[in-house]
Amino acid sequence: MRRWNGWGEESTVVALPAHGGQFLAELIGAGQVLPDATMEQVLATVPASRLVAPHDLISLDAEVRLRHARGQSLPDWLAMREGCFEVFPDGVALPETATQIRELLAWAQQQDVILIPYGGGTSVAGHINPQASEQPVVTLSLERMNKLIEIDEQSLIATFGPGANGPQVESQLRARGYTLGHYPQSWELSTLGGWVASRSSGQQSLRYGRIEQLFAGGSVETFAGTLSIPTFPASAAGPDLKEILLGSEGRFGVISEVRVRISKLAVEENFYAVFLPDWPSALEAIRTLVQARVPLSMLRLSNAIETKTQLALAGHPKQIVWLERYLALCGAREGKCMMTFGVTGNRQQNALSLKQAKHLLKGFGGVFTGTLLGKKWSEGRFRFPYLRHGLWEAGYAVDTLETATDWSNVDHLLNELETSLRTALADEGEQVHVFTHLSHVYGEGSSIYTSYVFRPGSSYAMALARWKKLKHSACQAIVNNRGTISHQHGVGRDHAPYLPVEKGELGIAALQALSTHFDPDQRLAPGVLLTK
Amino acid sequence: MRRWNGWGEESTVVALPAHGGQFLAELIGAGQVLPDATMEQVLATVPASRLVAPHDLISLDAEVRLRHARGQSLPDWLAMREGCFEVFPDGVALPETATQIRELLAWAQQQDVILIPYGGGTSVAGHINPQASEQPVVTLSLERMNKLIEIDEQSLIATFGPGANGPQVESQLRARGYTLGHYPQSWELSTLGGWVASRSSGQQSLRYGRIEQLFAGGSVETFAGTLSIPTFPASAAGPDLKEILLGSEGRFGVISEVRVRISKLAVEENFYAVFLPDWPSALEAIRTLVQARVPLSMLRLSNAIETKTQLALAGHPKQIVWLERYLALCGAREGKCMMTFGVTGNRQQNALSLKQAKHLLKGFGGVFTGTLLGKKWSEGRFRFPYLRHGLWEAGYAVDTLETATDWSNVDHLLNELETSLRTALADEGEQVHVFTHLSHVYGEGSSIYTSYVFRPGSSYAMALARWKKLKHSACQAIVNNRGTISHQHGVGRDHAPYLPVEKGELGIAALQALSTHFDPDQRLAPGVLLTK
Hints:
The structure is a homodimer.
Chain A: H1 18-28, H2 39-43, E1 58-59, H3 62-67, H4 74-82, E2 91-93, H5 98-111, E3 114-118, E4 137-141, E5 148-152, E6 157-160, H6 166-174, E7 178-179, H7 192-198, H8 205-208, H9 211-214, E8 215-222, E9 225-229, H10 241-245, E10 254-261, E11 263-264, E12 268-276, H11 279-291, E13 298-302, H12 304-313, H13 317-330, E14 337-345, H14 347-362, E15 367-368, H15 372-379, H16 387-393, E16 397-406, H17 407-422, E17 433-438, E18 445-454, H18 460-479, H19 499-518
Helix pairs in contact in A: 4-18, 17-18
């Protein structure tokens, strides 16, 4: 059963090891545990639905409404743990076909209802939260439209319902010998339609591309009609309508069908870990490697403090001691940075890619440690979000944020971002533990993915106030230092106020013109992406 | 000196060899030579400019106006050869800075003048032709804004003026050890701004990407203000404004600065030719090769009739006889198809890519001929447009058109397209020589690039009437058979009527909404891209 007040399946538990708790206590102080609400308590707060004439496809069940009321941002987490949800949708629509989506749009227009398109509910930026409003609000969940509809095996295109989540996508493709290869950290729960709507990026985007490269066409139901986007390998026939949809976050329409570019399953895949002696050499090494176009499928780099944190929080301290001794002998001591890379493909190509990567990294003092840590990364690639539970139970709040910038600015922005978080609670005398990795690298630059751990204080109100300071401070650091407000999480409500810095007033007005074109009454997810 | 009535530099002459003329005469009949007009004759037809208060940056010179009046479509060619230009711009603006572009926009608004943004004037789809109108028309040429402004060597981003043409881009980059790697066939004359505005694709897009992947950001001057698009390696912050600009064909604004992703010059580059025994095996071979992700930098495949035509029109018949004998011995006889591929990069990777490509192609009966023909392709890669002159002087008209579709549809669409052209003049009892290659391949599908040679008839009017039949027939075949109306030439005026089939009425309306947003008076290139 999926958790109603946190991440993932109830059966998956990732606890913080005792030595990890000590590590954090030394850095930022002893944990502060806040009491959790029960589901019964929250159910008692769900108000009667305001829907006068609910459509047959809409559930008014209190638990269903509760389970669709919040995403996975830290404010969502706090609201769920405290049991203070504030606003619930008046109903949850569960269509099974495009025709039913169109029916629901017509119904919403007729009944003057606001609709919130909903995929896996994994937003960390406030995409799917109903707001207090005079009009009733219905969450339109696409979870029942999760089937593989068709594969064009010559063109390597698969057609899916928009509500297929990561495991549903991969299991249906793998049964036929194919893969999409799109693995965001939210993969277990997030959906194809959500990936398209929010411009998602997967951990192996170096090989498979971001969702922008994987999305081949499909259909969107809008208040102005159905927009069908045919599949072409490429086209010069005017601006690409796919790109208008990518990142539209539900403001233009409800995605009813998604066609994606798939790949045959690779013969071989391996992940490796290399330790670089310090951050400057690690940063230059990773840039050189990606700009040399060595065909890797994954490449990420933790900074020194993240490397240290990962080793400290790992569940096998004895092994880590031996690893540290070995690394120190080879020159990777205090300040070392862990790089992980993957090769995916045929054996000959993988062997050459590995050889070239090793050779190049050796030139930067890299200590190669083989596949052991790479395998660990691969096995635990979707476990990080579960760690929020382990940390919370130990009395710590954790959140992440991310951006991307050109290589010439990566180090500067990373420092500004980490500093903004590290000092955001200084007025309260609170320490914040901040660490970063580069998770998606490109010839031009890199994403920057920063995690921060802080103490929630003595109440939920205090925890939220601390988060707001941290978040605003970090977002300001990003937009004032040439970063994009999001590389992979999207805009939602939380990032919308910062978006004009990069889009310009004119760009925002253009997006608003498109939103008005497709949704004249502004009935779809108002306030998401664009503040109006 | 650039030709005023045809392609390229006057000093470059590509004649049709005598045996090439015989080859065509046997296929479609003896050539029909039409008389050319002189420039003096045309200059005498340039009317007085209608500009009441011309801006200082605008030239009213008759020859300058003549030289900016037509592009390179076949109707343009016929108009230029006949000397019947019909409409000339009332002036040609030659700004040198973004500020001057903004001045010109303000002036155009004040004077109620239509503006046509102009790059290299190489459009083959009627992008830059002034139309008869009550308002005066000024062509806004960006040719003076052709400088490399800045290189960010860490991020591999170069900033250029929008008017830099292919040689200006490459020579300024190569002097610093870099390349853009973007080589459309029009490279000698077409410009960076034009590539962006029309979603251009270069011959080595397999390595470097299309202009969509190379375009990193820049500035556009619009009637609603300046749109500055910052550079990010990737972003999830809403729809990508770059993608709204790509393919906008001057309808939204005038591009004043272009930032592009560049590469370090590769250590080694080679091109190879392989002959496949027949079209079905060749088609499967090229699809298999690209879907196997072998890192090639170029991959193209001529169908049997193009292969035969290329060998027949080549300038060295004795060598060709020996080549044919060798190929026949190896199993590539009548019906054989020539594939050309390139490897670009470091020696180890190139060696492996070559080995893997050869091995795979051998499985399809491919006969490898080494670098000789590949080198010839590389040396002559920009010469094909000059052949229009050689053919014209021999009494033949030639035109090309192109599309792209998914692999499962390539063979079908190619046949429909070729047949539509081959039979388009049947009512006049005229033969059309039609041949095709796949010039840009993707995992999902391929572009289809078709050339057709026909006799112009006894007059320019007859030649134009024939072209119209051919063009309409082919465009119908494309849009009725799941092809995009253009893979690399853009929409312009010639393809605009066919665009709604793929964009949908709703998609067209969305693009129109953007055009109205940026250019409320519809003063920029009206009728281009969108028929309104």
